[in-house]
Amino acid sequence: MLKKILKVTGIVLGVIVVIIAGYYTKVYISTERRMHKKYEIALEALPLSRDSAVLARGAHLVRTKACTECHGQDLGGKVFVDDPALGFLIASNLTNGKGGRPADFGADDWTLALKHGLRRDRTPLIFMPAHEFAVMSEQDLSAIASFCEQLPDVDREFEPSSLGPLARVLADLDKLPLLPAEMIDHSKKLVKEVKAEISADYGKYLSTSCQGCHRENMKGGEPVAPGFPEVADISSSGHPGKWTDEQFINTLRTGTTPEGKTLKPDEMPWTMTKEFSDLELKALHLYLKSI
Ligand code: HEC
Ligand code: HEC
Fold first, then answer.
1. Looking at the domain assignment, is residue 165 inside a domain?
2. 252 in ligand 1 pocket by Cβ < 6 Å?
């Protein structure tokens, strides 16, 4: 009797293992295919400049667009994910130092990365949120590329990145923005310039930095990843709708809300939002109150 039960249990377990292995093989093959796809695109290189006003704008943008959050304060690269299930991922060393970009990395390559989410071989970059950058103005993207082009060398080398099984499964279920290049309209032309002023339009332009978590309607919702809190509603129906500009600015610079809540920078990145200027935060608040 016991022998028979053990035998049946063995068969059931065996079948389950085969099903899981089959499913994972399918996921593995399809994510590999997506990661190695070469994108045929018409490239219009961003103009690079050494003008000091352009470089200052670029320096401001690399902080407010979170480049430094992922690539490190000196943009010399940082371990972005190190988890057995998700994988080991490096946000690249963007300088010309050891472990950084090749010496001939130029305007074409910056454009591929920022506007298209692609490497120079035209395969997609992993987790590099280019879909948020592809909607910026040509002037702003050029300023970012120009600033990064002249960064002082940082020598920092890493082991190569590798993707874990959970990241592949979540990407296969479309629960993880693994390859932002897939979300970009590659033929869309950039607008030349967006006027920096306290207007809802400019606020909307800036709010692309918030969309990844607060969603396009800014109403938040489900946590962005397991273990993270619910994302707050920051449209007119949420708390920021009731705050004064001063309270809004103070929250995004200190991480403490008027209701007394403390926001953790790894969940709500106020270390990034604190870098916005008063004008930018007022424009953002105006836009959030209008929706
Ligand atoms: C959410 C984290 C994150 C943010 C924010 C981010 N990056 Fe990245 N970036 C990455 C990762 C991860 C990679 C490496 C991707 C890979 O190897 O597939 C990368 C790669 C790159 C590359 C390498 C391209 C190549 O051809 O090797 C460039 C250039 C780059 N990022 C520039 C930027 C700039 C400039 C910003 C800000 C405007 C920025 N990144 C913001 C995560 C990020
Ligand atoms: C990486 C994800 C992420 C990004 C990007 C992000 N937020 Fe948040 N934000 C959150 C989460 C999660 C919460 C809720 C935190 C909590 O409940 O502790 C939050 C909370 C807030 C709050 C507090 C709301 C309240 O009711 O107290 C404000 C205000 C806010 N975010 C504004 C912004 C703005 C403006 C941007 C873009 C410039 C932005 N956030 C970008 C994840 C994010």
1. yes
2. no
Tens digits of residue pLDDT in 219-250:
999 998 778 899 999 999 999 999 999 999 99
Provide the whole-model pTM.
0.91
Q: Is residue 225 part of a domain?
A: yes
User: Ligand nearest 249 Cα, by number?
Assistant: 2
Calculate ∠ Cα 268-281-258, nearest 5°. 60
Considering every ligand atom shown, identify the ligand nearest to the alpha carbon of residue 286 and give its number: 2
CATH number reported for the structural domain that contains residue 233 in this entry:
1.10.760.10
- Our mutation pick for probing the ligand 1 site, out of 92, 119, 271, counting the most ligand atoms within 8 A of Cβ, is 92
Same domain, 77 and 153: yes
Q: In this structure, are 159 and 224 located in the same domain?
A: no
16 within some domain: no
pLDDT at 55 over 80: yes
Give the residue numbers spanning the domain of 133: 52-183
Number of domains in the chain: 2
pLDDT, tens only, 252-266? 999 999 999 999 998
pLDDT, tens digit, 9 for 90 and up, residues 23-53: 889 999 999 999 999 999 999 999 999 999 9
pLDDT tens readout for residues 76-103: 999 998 998 889 999 999 999 999 999 9
- pLDDT attached to residue 61: 96
| Distance between Cα 133 and ligand 2 center (Å) | 19
